[in-house]
Model the fold of this input.
Amino acid sequence: MTNNQPMRPSDAFAQLGRIKPREMSLRDMFQRVVDLAGASIPAVTEASVTVLQGADAHTPAYTGGLALTLDESQYTLGEGPCLQAARATTVESVSDMTTESRWPGWTAGALRAGARSSLSIGLPVHATGGALNLYATDPHVFDADTLAVAQAFASYATLAMAIDHLNDARVTLSQHLDAAMDGDAVIEQAKGIIIGERRCSPDQAFAGLTTMARDTNRTVREVAQAMVERISETAGR
Done:
């Protein structure tokens, strides 16, 4: 995306500020961030977001083929500024590909693709690495003012990732609670069966389940499940 008439960063941030992250997918949020960053930061040719999941890296959002090519070449090589920024939560600036010495294999390919400079900003999200990447076809375009604006865009991407992790954690917790409730339900059913058979109290019924679990080297839930299944099979005959 080439910026012939860049949008003002303040207008871009106003658009991002009106977004409700919980009502938008993480991929769509990333896409909005890179689109607005590419449209409002002068001299940026294309932008992308890198996400690390364990040892794997991928680009869920990008503004054009150049950004995707430059990202994926780093994933293939296993090194480069976006990977370094994502892994170490750092800012990695390449002011001129022709003089950069840290990643010679990648910079040689980037020059062939038409890129002359880049800026990658790590996204500090627990358990997942990420980076906002900006690429330019001109050298020496990422100064201190540009970095400050880019870091503001990166903060929106970080927020989107944090909310996504929070939602995942809530789903996992809900699943655990559902499983626990299912376990409680079957235990209560088994207690009811024992109470009906032995005319005992609920506490005595649970003590009986505990004893059977210990004697058969099973959990109380496993004993309860087997008892409920046995009674269900008997009733169905």
